[in-house]
Amino acid sequence: MDFNVKRLAADAGTFLSRAVQFTEEKLGQAEKTELDAHLENLLVRAENTKQWTERIMKQTEVLLQPNPNVRLEEFVYEKLEKKAPTRMNNHELLGQSMIDSGSEFGPGTAYGNALTKCGETQKQIGGAEREFIQSAAINFLTPFRNFLEGDFKTILKERKLLQVKRLDLDAAKTRLKKARMADARAAAEQELRMTQSEFDRQAEITRLLLEGVSSTHAHHLRCLNDFVEAQTTYYAQCYQYMVDLQKQLGSFPSSFSNNNQSSVSGGASISVPTIPVSASLPSVSPGHSSAAASGGFSELRSSNGSRKARVLYDYDAASSSELSLLADEVITVSSVPGMDSDWLMGERGNQKGKVPITYLELLN
Questions:
Q1: Residue 220, burial from CB neighbour count under 10 angstroms (0-12, 13-18, 19+)
Q2: Can you list the alpha helix ranges (DSSP code H) found in the chain?
Q3: What does the angle CA 359 – CA 360 – CA 361 come to, to the nearest 5 degrees?
Q4: Confidence check: pLDDT of 106 > 50
Q5: At how many degrees (to 10) do helices 2-26 and 152-178 cross?
Q6: pLDDT of 6-64, one tens digit each?
């Protein structure tokens, strides 16, 4: 019991001594032992590393998950050590909507088929995004978080202990200055040697930990390389998916006309910008180059006769005045005076209606 009381009294005295020293330093009434320049520089570097690591982490999290509500939900699940519910990302949601609408319009139609292909590609991009986020979380965010929650907390703890040892050292120096009796000076000198030794030991421990920040930088550099590699893979996958989709859509017409479009020269047209996809277009026999085909349609319109034509792509009639088409079927086409130059009259048995010339190849 007496031992505990004495220990509590000693601890209270030590705490009071530190408080007095700290207060007098702030008021400029006591000298303060300064850390050496190297140690101060290490402390500044460690603090900068902590601040920038936090900032990079925060912005990376925003990049990977722009929705703040979802980020908060994921944070709560993480703290509760529970698995967050799996949800479709934006690309996957868009892809599913496109696929569903493509099924509604009919996969046998040009528009329905194109929607389905676009939807499948969007879901592929969504899957690639999911893999990228997982890789970035494991190989980039986790090491950064481990530094903040592990190594830097240890540095912070030892730095605070160094501050305590410095206050003890300076308090001992103050008591030595105030000692007048020989016995008091001897006790003060012994206390000073002990506190100096403890301060030096703690300064060395803190220095070694702070110098370890260089290893942290090297580790974070490797993590940064992993992050860039994951981004490169993700963007390369997305690019390849889109190129493949573009080639598939290359089999569809690149421009469209409707009954209300004017045939005035220079009128605006709707076109799909593509990288060269000529290899994906249906092949044309040597006697039917694009120039020859254009000439054939001009001859047909000027002669007011009729010709056989092969259908290149499926076409869904937009109105009762048009004729629906199936790829590779052969129909009879003719020109009607006053008709838009992009259209011809098509006949299949008893069925008759307007058809776009971009879907046709004239036969000999």
A1: buried
A2: 2-26, 37-64, 68-79, 90-105, 110-136, 142-146, 152-178, 182-211, 213-249, 290-303
A3: 140
A4: yes
A5: 90
A6: 555 555 656 666 776 667 666 665 677 888 999 999 999 999 999 999 999 999 999 98
pLDDT tens, residue by residue, 185-208: 999 899 999 999 999 999 999 999
Q: How far apart are CA 310 and CA 326, in angstroms?
A: 10
Identity of the amino acid at 106 = G
Do residues 24 and 30 lie in contact, with contact meaning Cβ atoms separated by under 8 Å? Answer: yes
Locus of tokens 């060395």 = 204
Helix (H, G, I), strand (E, B) or coil at 331: strand
HSE-CB at 272 with a 13 A cutoff on CA atoms is 17
Q: What pTM, to 2 d.p., does this model score?
A: 0.60
Which whole-number Å values give the CA distances from 276 to 37, 123, 310, in the listed order? 63, 24, 24
Quote the distance between the C-alpha of residue 357 and its chain's center: 44
Q: Which DSSP category does 140 fall into?
A: I
Which DSSP letter does residue 309 get?
E
> What digits encode the pLDDT tens for the residues 157-184?
999 999 999 999 988 888 888 888 888 8
Give the whole-angstrom CA distance, residue 136 versus residue 144: 11
Q: Which contacts (CB < 8 Å, 24+ apart) does range 115-120 have?
A: 117/245, 117/248, 117/249, 118/245, 118/249, 119/94, 119/95, 120/95
Specify the amino acid at residue 29.
Q
At 294-310, the pLDDT tens digits run 557 777 877 778 889 99
Cβ atoms within 10 Å, residue 175: 18
CA 184/CA 177 separation, integer angstroms: 10
Ordered strands of the 343-348 beta sheet: 351-356, 343-348, 330-334, 306-311, 360-362
Element (H, E) at 34: none
